[in-house]
Amino acid sequence: MASVIAKRRLALYGTAPAGSPLRDEARPIDRVTRPFYAVWEVTLRCDLSCRHCSSRAGRARDDELTTREALDLVGALADLGVEEVTLIGGEAYLRDDWLEIIRAIRGRGMRCTLVTGGRGFSRARAHAAKDAGLQSVSVSVDGLEASHDALRGLRGSFDGALAAIDAVRGVGMQVTANTQIARRNVRDVPELFARLLEARIAAWQPQITVPMGRAADEADIVIEPFQMLEVMPMLARLKSLADAAGVVFWPGNNVGYFGPHEAHLRDSMPGCQRGSCGAGRVSIGIESNGNVKGCPSLPSREYVGGNVRSAPLEAIWERAPAVGFMRERSVADLWGRCSTCYYAEDCLGGCSWTAHSATGRPGNNPYCHHRALTLLRQGLRERIVLRERPPGQSFDLGIFDLVEEAWPQGELVRAEAVARGQEPWLACADPAAEPLSDS
Q: pLDDT 10s digit of each residue in the chain, 439 long?
């Protein structure tokens, strides 16, 4: 049977985005702003072929950094003030020098963590990673077996992810989990979390699947904005279970915002609330060819500020408008419903990645619990409708229409019950699972 990876739209690589021109000089705010957290895509080579993959991982980029360039980048990240580096892919362990990169990160005094789909993260790899200095591994688990395997594109990937959790824990390294919430798996999430508790994870991060890359190719796997009405009460219940089990509950940046559960979900954060997008303020993202963004998830065409082969990392951080776009953002930059929201000054439109992917530019984020509740009180809801598919490049975007409409007759009362936590689910048609590969 042919590999399922061949059935997915792999990224089309041409010339890497050059990024916007650098400013002649850094502004005062750019000189004092430093990232403490870096997410580094060390390769796009992958042994899974996920339906919701923003980067369309599968094969390595043609121009990925050499070992020497990667080690130089480690030094530049440390000099910039980064305190923690998370390695992602693709699959980081498919890069031959991944252990050397881990050793270099730890040698410069930075914390090093890794995110994996887990298919090949064996006990031997876990031992080697721990010996190199890796401190924590987050395994992506996106549903119960049928849903996870359908989303990840490979039969057996769910078992592989659970085996990876066992392997990491078995060598005495911290193991956590992360879950993308999509239309395909939303009803699995409570039972999945119970399974993860049984697997003795230390922390769990849920986030919303964003309509970018392959998730924009088949946009019906992405939840609708109005489904935040069901997702947020569900996550609030799971947060209580996590607290009781001593598991850290760390919601992703696009989960929220400012609804009745915010303080409960983010009680470990200052002010018990998320705040505005941290791209280019507290975080930096690196693509495997050396492209630099303020956040690793942002679309490359619009947000690559430069490449470490053509400019020093510090210069890109301080002088690239595409990287530092959030440093002086204000309510004046918002649009749509976000521009008039009560929380606009604190939120500033929420997650730029989510907003830009759904609406074509940042500053108006329909995936907001407070917004969904406000619309519900007016008898309204929002959906996104795909108008044009993305071109097939890594971190690319489709074009969506944001539709505001009255709730269909008969569904409004149930939606109100769901929002109060009295009903578990809104009506949601799951897309049919396509055939899976055993290879």
A: 233 433 567 776 554 455 678 999 999 999 999 999 999 999 999 999 999 999 999 999 999 999 999 999 999 999 999 999 999 999 999 999 999 999 999 999 999 999 999 999 999 999 999 999 999 999 999 999 999 999 999 999 999 999 999 999 999 999 999 999 999 899 999 999 999 999 999 999 999 999 999 999 988 899 999 999 999 999 999 999 999 999 999 999 999 888 899 999 998 876 666 678 999 999 999 999 999 999 999 999 999 999 999 999 999 999 999 999 999 999 999 999 999 999 999 999 999 999 999 999 999 999 999 999 999 999 999 999 999 999 999 999 999 999 999 999 888 988 998 888 777 665 443 444 443 334 4
Distance of CA 411 to the CA centre of its chain: 31
Name the E strands within 327-373: none
Establish whether the linkage from the previous residue to 93 is cis, with ω within 30° of 0.
no
Q: Compute the CA torsion angle 97, 98, 104, 105 (nearest 10 deg).
A: 160
| Tokens 């709730």 found at | 407
47: which DSSP letter? S
Q: Residue 236 has which token pair?
A: 């609030």
Considering the entire predicted model, what is its pTM?
Answer: 0.92
Neighbours of 332 (CB within 10 A): 9
3-state secondary structure of 303: helix
Residues 242, 278, 66, 76, Cα dihedral to 10°: -110
Residue type (1 letter), 261: H
* Cα distance between residue 425 and residue 231, in whole Å: 9
The residues pairing with 140 across neighbouring beta strands, listed in sequence order, are 178
Query: What span, in angstroms and rounded, lies between the C-alpha atoms of 371 and 150?
Result: 31
In b/e form, how buried is each residue of 400-439, taking b as 16+ CB within 10 angstroms? bebeeeebeeeeeeebbebbeeebeebeeeeeeeeebbee
